[in-house]
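User: Reviewer 2 asked us to show a designed sequence for the structure in our supplementary figure. I'm pasting the structure tokens here. Could you produce the per-position amino acids so we can include them in the response letter?
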């Protein structure tokens, strides 16, 4: 039995023009022709077309597909094994992509869940999500971001007040430490740096020492963070970064 070009195009979900092109370049030459010269495709041709479309779906150029299919050293079982390996790799990649999208979707639905009145009571005239879009753009695909959003969505007004009170108390103590001239590598500064790390882990996301050091670097390199910390006391941002580094070395040595 053989099939017309129109029938094969319908079977395979490709255009007649595509089949003509495959014929012209020798990638898929129909096994039969009518007396009038019309293309007729055999079952073997359909098998080859299936192989072609598989490799095309995986992004192989046509010349590489031809080389793969026409290699006399490759038998059908080798093709099947190769296809299985490629499909498995594609599935793993797609699963990772799907997980990242799910995290992003989940995080988008969450965040600070307070009424406008409660927000004002907790944060005053400051917008706690002023940089939300930038944060999502930079870290939206990370587990830390998704975890932070999940936790934030569960916090009540009283939770946010406790969080703010902790942060304010820490800020006052660290500013006093810097004002007193305590060194970043001193015990008191490192203890407050550790308290800072644990505050992040308790309220937002797990913050290993390596990540904490990255945050410390950002507190100096990003002018907005630097201004925030230096407003507590001049030079506090740099001091905190060094204290975070010393604290990390103390705990990971």
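Assistant: Here is a per-position design you can include in the supplement:
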């Amino acid at each position: 039995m053989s099939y017309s070009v129109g029938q094969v195009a319908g079977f395979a979900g490709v255009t007649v023009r595509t089949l003509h092109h495959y014929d012209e370049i020798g990638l898929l030459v129909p096994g039969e022709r009518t007396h009038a010269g019309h293309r007729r495709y055999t079952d073997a041709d359909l098998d080859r077309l299936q192989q072609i479309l598989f490799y095309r779906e995986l992004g192989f150029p046509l010349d590489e597909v031809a080389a793969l299919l026409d290699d006399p050293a490759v038998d059908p079982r080798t093709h099947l094994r190769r296809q299985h390996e490629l499909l498995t790799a594609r599935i793993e990649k797609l699963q990772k992509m799907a997980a990242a999208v799910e995290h992003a979707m989940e995080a988008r639905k969450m965040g600070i869940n307070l009424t406008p009145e409660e927000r004002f009571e907790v944060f005053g005239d400051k917008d706690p999500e002023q940089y939300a879009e930038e944060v999502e753009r930079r870290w939206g695909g990370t587990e830390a971001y998704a975890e932070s959003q999940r936790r934030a969505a569960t916090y009540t007004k009283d939770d946010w007040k406790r969080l703010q009170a902790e942060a304010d108390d820490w800020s006052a103590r660290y500013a006093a430490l810097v004002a007193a001239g305590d060194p970043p590598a001193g015990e008191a500064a490192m203890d407050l740096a550790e308290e800072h790390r644990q505050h992040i882990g308790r309220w937002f996301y797990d913050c290993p020492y390596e990540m904490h050091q990255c945050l410390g670097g950002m507190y100096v390199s990003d002018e907005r963070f630097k201004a925030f910390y230096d407003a507590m006391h001049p030079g506090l941002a740099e001091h905190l970064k060094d204290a975070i580094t010393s604290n990390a070395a103390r705990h990971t040595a």
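For the response letter, you might also mention the following. The mean pLDDT is 85. The beta strands are 3-4, 32-33, 39-41.
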